[in-house]
Amino acid sequence: MPSFWRHNWTAGQALEVFETRLGLVTRQLARSSYLAGEAFTAADISVTYALQLARRSGGVVLGEVERAYMARTCGREGYKRAMETCQSTRAWLAAAPGQ
Question: From CA 31, how far away is CA 37, in angstroms rounded?
Fold first, then answer.
């Protein structure tokens, strides 16, 4: 956790909630390719965005399960088309540390 968060109760609470939810996601992805099993759903779009946001803005380091999931979701043709359409989101993600 970044040192400035130690003194920011709200940020600390948000991180704690995120980590709890991330645990649920990780356990589900250990059992299946996507959140609803083998079917890609809107939940996957939402969670992929949240993971990107956490990694990009929150400095969260994703584990192997989450990185493999991100590769699956971001490798989908629909995702690639969306990134071609939305240049600002594409640029934002490309500027992320470790990209």
Answer: 8
Helix residue ranges per DSSP H, the chain: 9-29, 42-57, 64-74, 77-85, 87-94
Domain ranges of the chain: 3-94
Residue 25 near residue 49 (C-beta atoms within 8 A): no
- CA 16 to each of CA 10, 20, 36, 62, 83: distance values in angstroms, whole numbers, following the listed order: 10, 6, 24, 15, 30
Q: Which pTM was predicted?
A: 0.74
pLDDT tens digits along 26-76: 999 999 999 999 999 989 998 998 898 888 877 788 999 999 999 999 999
User: Over the Cα atoms of the chain, what is R_g?
Assistant: 14
Domain 3-94 in this protein, CATH class: mainly alpha
